[in-house]
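Side project, low priority. Logging it here so it doesn't get lost.
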Amino acid sequence: MRVLFVDDEKQVLAGLERTMFMADRDWDVAFANSGAEALLALRAQPADVVVSDMRMPMMDGAELLRQVRDSCPRTIRIILSGHTEQEAALRSLDVAHQFLAKPCEGDALIEAIDRAVALQALLDDPAVQAVAGYIGGLPSAPRMFAQLNRLLVDPAAGVGQVAGVVEGDPALAAKVLQLANCAFFGNGHHVADIKDAVNRIGLGLLRTLVLASEVFHSGAGDSADAIRTDAVRASRLAAVVGKGHVAEDLVTTAALLANIGALLPDIERLCRDADPLGRGFPSHAEIGAYLLGVWGLPGAIVEAVAHHRTPRRVEHRQFDAIGVVHVAVALAQDRAPDLEYLLSMGVAAQLPQWQAACAQIREAEHLS
């Protein structure tokens, strides 16, 4: 695997070189001290991962990664930025997969790159990586966008109200979780709960994000509305199915995001363009999981999203998040869960109870 580091400060590059040497990874590592030099290096030899400083003269990290996305869409793009540059870094939210605080601990940097390697193993078809790489944002419902805007300019609105809106739309949830799980806002602990994510970001910065950036793209249509409705229903049902089995915040978030791949803009055309021979692509679940993974969401969520359609292909010792999300999403979409899998997990007897809970959730939807 080839990793390209970009920073205009030579001493920083020297420090990164020492970090890579100490990490003892089997990586082909290269360094560039400007955006222009990085682009030349990429034209000579593409990289699997590009790690760039945000603040550089002539061409900053956001512009560099934008050009990398356009010319090398399968490359995983990581931005390094200081805490004082948070708002500037928001400009790169649609082109950077992950964000790391600068100065960055060597272990955190190695972990981020290791995660990139693992994700490339999840979907190792370069054409699929190219499709995912082109995607900077997800379409969110205009009504949700407008509602969130109103709350964010209301001084009386609290974190709980804002989180409630975010929880109602998988695209908003995915982007808020992406931002909350970057190194600016955390101490290395991943966030899976939407309210915790909103609280970690803060309403002030979230307001800047929503009102001043292009992260949340409007998207409409009956198909997208149906996907969002099913996603919210699955999230609510996952809390019931997962009770006594797994953490509620994990499965409710994973169920909300399980079919995020179906919301990806123009995904079918991108797949055809990437593979005109039609040799076959992973499911929307796997493509969505890949995107969530490179955004830095917790691995347990990425895994549950990737495998929720086919839980038996993963070795299970107990009914875990993958199984919970499988059941919740299937019932929310009026599909039958994998009964053989449920029998093997010893939970098939609970299926009528879960079906009844889903019916109650549907009834509440009609009354609201």
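Brief comment: Residues 138-368 form a domain with the Hypothetical protein af1432 fold (CATH 1.10.3210.10).
Revisit when time allows.
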